[in-house]
Design a protein that fits this description.
This protein is an alpha+beta fold. The protein has 14 helices and 5 strands. It has helices at about 10-15, 60-65, 70-80, 85-90, 105-110, 120-130, 145-150, 165-180, 185-190, 190-200, 205-215, 225-235, 250-265, 270-280, and strands at about 1-5, 25, 30-35, 40-45, 50. Strands 1-5-4-3-2 form a 5-stranded antiparallel beta sheet. A hairpin with a 2-residue loop joins strand 3 and strand 4 (about 40-45). Helix 10 packs across helix 11 (about 205-215) and helix 12 packs across helix 13 (about 250-265).
């Protein structure tokens, strides 16, 4: 068991169920998840984050994953002081954190996420892990490595019931396994070039690219846009991302996204579909 005495206000439910990750499942005792081949049960108690099943030698791994090194209270104070409407968004869900997820897993899960809902994304991802991953604790399976997934064709991935997304997964695995898409390069490139490089992959549009940059590569300045964010920006921030978010706009995006889903009108079905097409 690992205990982090001060999780700096982390809210597990708000963070793990907001659409940025898909391998955490709610349990009566907390949240059961698999990250980097490690299977744990996470819960909070007071200010502490408790990870049952985690090993002491993995303390740095989990601290990095949950971004416990970032001073979120100070960052939130900066956001709140800088923009009145952004303060409303932060105060709605102050416990949301942007996770540092494994790059290849993030790429695959957001390829799967296109025109999909969270419960179905989770189900497809779990089937993928059972098909190509390795057994880990709590009856779960690890996310497959790129080299392993590259052995599968789109036809081999039919049991996932992922539809046209299966071809995207197979191609992404081949390019990552061969080094054509390189994590280290994407971390080093200027943001615009890294986004362009990701978009060279079949099935990766601007939204998926920015999700991978933000959630899988720790590029805090990436700002994924979907129908909810477009609506929020038009309604709340018509002049663009507030200046106080500079360098951390992707983190602000999570607060804006959660606020938009809770408070802004859903719009018609046609508008939703058009927004999804535009953002993917």
């Amino acid at each position: 068991m690992l205990i982090f005495e001060d999780a700096r206000g982390l809210d597990l439910s708000a963070t793990l169920d907001c659409g940025q990750c898909f391998r955490w499942l709610p349990r009566q005792e907390g949240w059961q998840g698999v990250v980097g081949g490690r299977s744990v049960l996470a819960r909070t108690q007071g200010r502490a984050l408790i990870l049952e099943g985690a090993q002491e030698e993995d303390r740095d791994f989990w601290a990095d994953y949950f971004a416990l090194d970032l001073d979120y209270p100070a960052l939130q104070s900066r956001f709140c002081a800088g923009n009145r409407r952004l303060r409303l968004c932060v105060e709605e869900n102050p416990g949301i954190r942007v996770l540092r997820q494994p790059f290849f897993e993030t790429l695959c899960t957001f390829l799967i996420s296109q025109n999909n809902n969270i419960s179905r994304i989770r189900a497809i991802v779990e089937r993928l892990c059972v098909l190509a991953g390795q057994p880990v604790a709590y009856g779960r399976f690890s996310f497959p490595q790129a080299a392993r997934l590259a052995e599968f064709s789109a036809q081999d991935l039919a049991p996932l019931r992922a539809g046209w997304r299966a071809a995207y997964l197979a191609e992404a695995a081949r390019q990552v396994a061969s080094g054509q898409i390189c994590e280290a390069e994407l971390r080093a490139l200027p943001l615009a070039q890294a986004r362009q490089r990701l978009q060279s992959l079949k099935g990766v549009g601007p939204k998926v690219a920015d999700c991978v940059l933000l959630f899988g590569l720790g590029r805090w300045d990436a700002f994924p846009r979907d129908v909810w964010i477009n609506r929020a920006m038009d309604t709340l921030f018509p002049r663009g991302v507030p200046v106080c978010c500079r360098g951390r706009s992707g983190i602000a995006q999570q607060y804006i996204f959660a606020y938009a889903r809770a408070h802004l009108p859903r719009g018609g079905e046609k508008g939703e579909k058009e927004g999804k097409k535009k953002s993917d």
